Amino acid sequence: MDLDWDDDEEPRGDGRECPICYESLSEKDWTWVVYSRYCKECAKPYLITKVQDAIKNELYYPVREGRDDIHLPSLQQLIDDDALLRMYFHRGRDYAVPVPERKYCKHKILVGDRPEDPYTYENRKTWIPPIALEVETETCGFQLRAPTEDLLDCSSCSGLTCANCIKPIYGANVDHYCPMLEEADEEVDGFAGQVRGKEYQICPNEQCQMPVSLWAACNHMVCAKPSCRTEFCFVCGERADESDGHWGTHEDQCPVYGQPD
């Protein structure tokens, strides 16, 4: 939270001493941290430790003073570590992903070979191919960001991961066989002889083409492939969502439920 108080305003309690070093604030430079005043000599390492803890452990994110969130942008000049704050806000994006939807890199890296700032391209390390001999490795384990088409990119080790089966991809010279895509091909064959738009439909995303069936629900479909999630109509197969008036009772609309009369 951002508090716009005058420096002369009294904080919670008497605020005459720094709550860390207990020295009088009357002769020292001090700053507000939410409702409390700290001398700047103590406030800087105090805040940096809180930020570091939040980067390492989601339980400490966002940084707080008591029950109140600390507004870090207003204290950026005091902390004076842009790289640390960048990591903090990047980590917040990772924490915002619901736990069931989080994906983690399975590439191997050299033991202990982790970048201090995994969100900066210049600091990236290099994943180790599985055929490497006599090299002690460990799993990267870094959280992967939202998919770009069918690939997930690890900002820590530069490894690519299949967004469908979440298995590592070992470079352009090594073929990757995705079992989920193979299953999709089999499902297409399984719809042979059926009527598209009545008994099955295909995702309109040209990069996906995942077939789907519908038993008892509305005609608003969302592709089940994690790297796609395209919204479309089961009846006509066109891209559509609830906001564009695609479904209704008029002649130029598809029905919400069932098939056209």
TrEMBL record:
One GO process term, biological-process aspect: protein ubiquitination
Indicate whether Zinc appears among the record's keywords: yes
What domain of life does the UniProt record list for this protein's source? Answer: Eukaryota
Question: What's its catalytic activity?
Answer: [E2 ubiquitin-conjugating enzyme]-S-ubiquitinyl-L-cysteine + [acceptor protein]-L-lysine = [E2 ubiquitin-conjugating enzyme]-L-cysteine + [acceptor protein]-N(6)-ubiquitinyl-L-lysine
Q: Which Gene3D superfamilies match?
A: 1.20.120.1750
Entry-linked PROSITE patterns: TRIAD (PS51873)
Q: Tell me which residues make up the RING-type domain.
A: 14-258
The protein's enzyme class: transferase
Entry's EC annotation: 2.3.2.31
Provide the GO MF annotations for this entry: ubiquitin protein ligase activity; zinc ion binding
Alphabetized, the UniProt keywords read:
Metal-binding, Repeat, Transferase, Ubl conjugation pathway, Zinc, Zinc-finger
Write down the InterPro entries for this protein, in alphabetical order.
E3_UB_ligase_RBR (IPR031127), IBR_dom (IPR002867), TRIAD_supradom (IPR044066)
Determine if Zinc-finger is one of this entry's keywords. Answer: yes
State the PANTHER family in the record: RBR FAMILY RING FINGER AND IBR DOMAIN-CONTAINING
Q: What is this protein called?
A: RBR-type E3 ubiquitin transferase
In which organism is this protein found? Pseudocercospora musae
